[in-house]
Specification:
Elements: H1 7-23, H2 26-34, H3 43-51, H4 70-82, H5 89-102, H6 105-117, E1 122-125, E2 140-143, E3 146-155, E4 162-167, E5 170-174, E6 181-186, E7 195-204, E8 206-208, H7 213-246, E9 248-249, E10 252-253, H8 258-287, H9 292-317, H10 329-341, H11 346-357
Parallel strand pairs: 1-4
Antiparallel strand pairs: 2-3, 3-7, 4-5, 5-8, 6-7, 9-10
Helix pairs in contact: 1-4, 4-7, 5-6, 5-7, 7-8, 7-9, 7-10, 8-9, 9-10, 9-11
């Protein structure tokens, strides 16, 4: 069986890649990173996400979306990772998935069209600090339609119009402006995002009545994060190889030395494996395959490990310049380190792989 992206998906990827290259390159990314007081959500990029269908990818057509699946969504996530692009694309798409999977017809009609076009930004609060990768370990407790607890790190809670919060009995919609809701900004070494803590103290919440939506949402979050990591890793390797071809030492390109080219070849193999693992995991989620949970954990663990290795090598093989603030290597490394830890780190997903395979 030949398993790969089709022509339309490749074109979609190219469209996202070209937009970032020509209209939101690394100079613009760096401006967001340097503006530590800013909200980290550049208006031009958010507008493009709404106009070009990036936010609508998983929203059903009857709610003004594209009606596509996780395979298509991971295409976008990979390109955004390769461009280390800032903004709340992923948390907003995941919030839309929560509403699609668990929301009532009224909730879907009210929220999905606005999420698809970028009228609303949203986020998800699914884990507490140090929480495990399990829907049962939700950060909030629900009682009489009100939530109490604390979740962190949460992406872009400061600009979200709605928060999807996980409690022990399912998912809830929370208005960030409601009484009992406190959002505190947190510092992040990865300047391509903004994170915070969401604390609820008896805050009124609107339940999403769908069954098992929390577990399904966690797996979708892991797939999109793994795809972002695969994009980061591939672009880090591409830039490192390009540098190795042009930087000379002892009269020869440094990339011609065995110690470097063999290491980069190993990274290429690892990144290729991660890319295919993510692609299959997205397909498994779309198709509802029996082994979808296993595929998700394989993808997230492999992508996290490989991205950290590839971006670390990017710093090392660029020599002295790679360690400087002025060079872009640290942008890729910090994003890889952060994304490798969210929605289940390598250790958590390997433990899940073991549980799913050998019990």
């Amino acid at each position: 069986m030949f398993f790969a992206l089709d022509a339309e998906q490749l074109t979609f990827a190219s469209t996202v890649r070209d937009f970032l290259a020509h209209r939101f390159d690394l100079d613009k990314v760096r401006a967001v990173v340097d503006d530590t007081a800013g909200d980290g959500a550049p208006a031009a990029l958010w507008k493009a996400a709404g106009e070009q269908g990036w936010l609508a990818v998983l929203v059903p057509e009857e709610h003004d979306g594209l009606g596509l699946g996780m395979v298509d969504a991971q295409v976008i996530a990979r390109e955004l990772g390769a461009g280390v692009a800032p903004g709340p694309w992923a948390p907003t798409v995941l919030a839309g998935e929560a509403v699609r999977l668990g929301g009532s017809a009224e909730q879907q009609a009210r929220l999905l069209p606005r999420l698809a076009t970028g009228q609303l930004a949203a986020t998800v609060a699914l884990r507490g600090e140090g929480g495990r990768y399990a829907a049962a370990e939700a950060p909030f407790e629900a009682r009489d339609g009100r939530l109490t607890g604390r979740a962190l790190p949460v992406e872009y809670p400061g600009i979200a119009h709605t928060i999807v919060a996980a409690a022990g009995d399912g998912l809830y919609l929370v208005d960030p402006a409601a009484p009992g809701v406190s959002v505190t900004a947190l510092s992040a070494y990865d300047g391509t995002t903004r994170v915070g803590a969401v604390e609820l103290d008896g805050a009124e919440a609107e339940p999403l009545p769908g069954i098992d939506a929390a577990a399904a949402l966690l797996d979708r979050a892991a797939v999109l994060t793994a795809s972002d990591l695969a994009g980061v890793a591939r672009e880090a390797l591409r830039r490192t190889v390009a540098y190795g071809r042009e930087r000379e030492q002892f009269g020869r390109p440094v990339g011609s030395f065995q110690a470097i080219k063999h290491a980069l070849a190993d990274l290429h193999v690892g990144i290729t494996m991660a890319e295919h693992a993510v692609l299959f995991a997205a397909h498994a989620v779309d198709a509802g395959l029996p082994g979808a949970a296993l595929a998700v954990s394989v993808a997230k663990s492999k992508a996290g490990e490989t991205a950290v290795a590839a971006t670390g090598a990017m710093i090392q093989y660029h020599g002295g310049i790679g360690y400087t603030w002025e060079h872009e290597a640290h942008l890729f490394y910090k994003r890889a380190k952060r994304q490798a830890a969210v929605f289940g780190d390598v250790t958590m997903h390997r433990e899940r792989i073991a549980a799913l395979t050998i019990g």
